[in-house]
Amino acid sequence: xxxxxxxxxxxxxxxxxxxxxxxxxxxxxxxxxxxxxxxxxxxxxxxxxxxxxxxxxxxxxxxxxxxxxxxxxxxxxxxxxxxxxxxxxxxxxxxxxxxxxxxxxxxxxxxxxxxxxxxxxxxxxxxxxxxxxxxxxxxxxxxxxxxxxxxxxxxxxxxxxxxxxxxxxxxxxxxxxxxxxxxxxxxxxxxxxxxxxxxxxxxxxxxxxxxxxxxxxxxxxxxxxxxxxxxxxxxxxxxxxxxxxxxxxxxxxxxxxxxxxx
Length: 262
What we know:
Blueprint: E1 9-10, E2 15-16, E3 21-22, E4 27-28, E5 33-34, E6 39-40, E7 45-46, E8 49-52, E9 57-58, E10 63-66, E11 79-82, E12 87-88, E13 93-95, E14 104-107, E15 112-113, E16 118-119, E17 124-125, E18 130-131, E19 136-137, E20 142-143, E21 148-149, E22 154-155, E23 160-161, E24 166-167, E25 172-173, E26 181-184, E27 189-193, H1 195-200, H2 205-219, H3 225-234, H4 243-255
Parallel strand pairs: 1-4, 2-5, 3-6, 4-7, 5-8, 6-9, 7-10, 8-11, 9-12, 10-13, 11-14, 12-15, 13-16, 14-17, 15-18, 16-19, 17-20, 18-21, 19-22, 20-23, 21-24, 22-25, 24-26
Antiparallel strand pairs: 26-27
């Protein structure tokens, strides 16, 4: 395979598409699978039961599939699964899952993951997210589609971050963040809606109006969470274009286990 540098080590059993490029001094373990068109830079270590899809770009000095940083881990055959067309910059570390959860750490498609990002065991990262430099996801974290996590932000274990969320620089996220919200700080505060992000993604004026009203009900009217949820459930009658967006937030609240940033 001429695309593999002669100093790289690819152990027997690894499944590497012939179109994959592997840089110098990279080590790839026997249970690794890498899909077509992916490039792996120099001095990377890809180990464990790691599956990487097509057309990813893995920069130099990245560690994928190492044992989770969990004292309970005893070498079980857990996994790391990475989708397609992701950019993974220098010094990122993504760990395997654990048997105490799903047993797999999952990263979706089209994510932009900057330098020094850590994604711990059993995390689920969706599609088209941006994780800025030094963002740190503890174990069991979920980050939904098109969320943006600012640099130097830490996310506590088991926290859920909803779709289209924007978390500012150096935020401390220890509670769940509902979809569409813009948050930052330590302690974390909800500053408003990620309106610019919604406009860039083509949300119509009518959809945004419904989301704005949902935000007012949840954060600006002094209602208890139970009362706010009841009021939100009535909003699709007035804002039918935003019915799916309102349902998304209500479903998120139903599955929240750490309480929401409020």
